[in-house]
Amino acid sequence: MPTYEYECKRCGFLFEEFQSITAQPLKHCPKCNGSVKRLIGKGSGIVFKGSGFYATDYRSPTYSGDAKKDSGSKSSGESCPNKDSCKAKCDKKKK
């Protein structure tokens, strides 16, 4: 259900009302009982609930397993897949 904004024509009081889409607009100000007009809303923000929303949250279990294998192989001292192009870089890092 959306939240609608209203402004009183008499006292200028601004307020919000949580109403269903099919509900009739309010006609009276809760403060002074004057007539109100419904304003064009700014929209609502997105609310994320949970531990987090990352690209990896929706990956398959096999992808996660393969990623762990890949990260483990680099740290275990295995050679780079492009031996010729990165050998010089790896040698410089070791020094």
Features:
single chain; alpha+beta; 3-stranded antiparallel β-sheet; rod-shaped
In brief:
The chain is of the alpha+beta class and 95 residues long. It has helices spanning 61-75, 83-94, and strands at 3-8, 14-18, 36-39. It is rod-shaped and about 80 Å long.
Describe this structure in words.
This protein has a 3-stranded antiparallel β-sheet, with no helix packed on it. It is rod-shaped, with a radius of gyration of 30 Å. With 95 residues, it is of the alpha+beta class. The protein contains 2 helices and 3 strands, in the order E-E-E-H-H. The chain has a domain at 3-39. A hairpin with a 5-residue loop joins strand 1 (3-8) and strand 2 (14-18). The chain has helices at residues 61-75, 83-94; strands at residues 3-8, 14-18, 36-39. The longest helix is centred in the last third of the chain and has 15 residues, at 61-75.
